[in-house]
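Morning!

This is the sequence you dropped in the shared folder:
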Amino acid sequence: MNRKKIRNWSPLDNAAKIFPPTSDEADPKVFRFSCCLTERVEEPPLQRALAQTLEEFPSFRNVLKRGVFWYYLEENSIRPLVKKEDMPPCSLIYRAASPALFRVTWFEHKISLEVYHVLTDGTGAMQFFKLLLCYYLKERHPEALQGYTPLIDYSASRGEKGRDSFDQYYNRRIKGKNAPDKPAYQLRGPGSPEGRLQVIEGLVPADRLLQAAHRRHATLTVFLTAVLMQAVEGVMRVRDKKKPVTITVPVNLRNFFESQSARNFFSIINVAYSFQGREPDLDEIVQSVGMDFKQRLTQEFLQNRLNALSSLEHNPIARVVPLPVKDFFMKAAYNISERNYTAALSNIGRVDMPAEVQPYISYFDVLTSTKKLQLCICSYQNVLALSFSSAFAGTDVQRLFFQQLTALGIPVEICSNIEGIPPEEAPNP
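The structure's back. Tokens below.
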């Protein structure tokens, strides 16, 4: 008798539930890590490295399924193939005909990992990516790296990697509520040609940027949030200043709750500053932003937010509502929440790699799809990448942002996928 194989499956984590009903060609909810090497990439060793990495992260073989009441992830035996990059960055990944939730591409000196956010967040993806790079470089240089065992400081078991930490830390007994966010100023303008994601990236010395932040007694994230706010103010009309400039910032919840999950485990905070009746003084903005971060980066604030966002899936009535109805209301709620921020800033932080492979790596960068404007940040050794992705044709905010850095004495090396961008829009002292 033939028996159908029973596949392992798991419900989407709380953060992932919003992505299927809100993903589309304009914003496929895809983010991208890239590593620029000191040499050209070769495809065969990269393919072998991917196969080895998937043995350590089997959850990356999961595919997305649509159930009666919820979406879910199902174990699959797919064997994704690496390929030479031939699409714009952060293009749509999930399609019924192509079930993989990530892709690995290469071009010249660069290897990229693109991930549909349903699968994992930046922390989980970075652990996968770092291991992939280590396996690749060992395959690429077997003699130089003879005896080296690719190992990333991530000792979690497979069970820990696959754990839903939102469910683990949901506490219905905690009834606290955070104050609601106010509607924010919205950037406007023509969309990018053919809906293509516009990318402008600046490479800066990490130490010089950190010095500028520390002189103002601020963290790097606080400082760059303030600089971004001031750049946005530069394109606002007087009447626009009735609404605050609000930057949404993802927060890694693993820094507040014990977790080694390789799935999504993040939240967001919205940080606002009103320019109405004020001169845009950077030091004042930094001070205000720092106070907002201090108030919101607390376990109490993040626990309240976790509970509020998780309550729906724990509601017995909501559980039996058919998925199309859930999709409708979740998309509507998402569209309303979009009114509460102007732009986004995500700081992945410093990327550390084993000493054995460091000579082969130049720098890392990170991008994400967006319907608005997003700044993503990461650093490797002393190279810090500031990567803007935008749905707009205009580049005024990005130009003003980098001009502010150069005015502070921080050198910036600009690159972009925008054809014909004039030199004045890419300051490089």
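Headline: Residues 422-429 have pLDDT under 50 and may be disordered.

More detail when I'm at my desk.
O.
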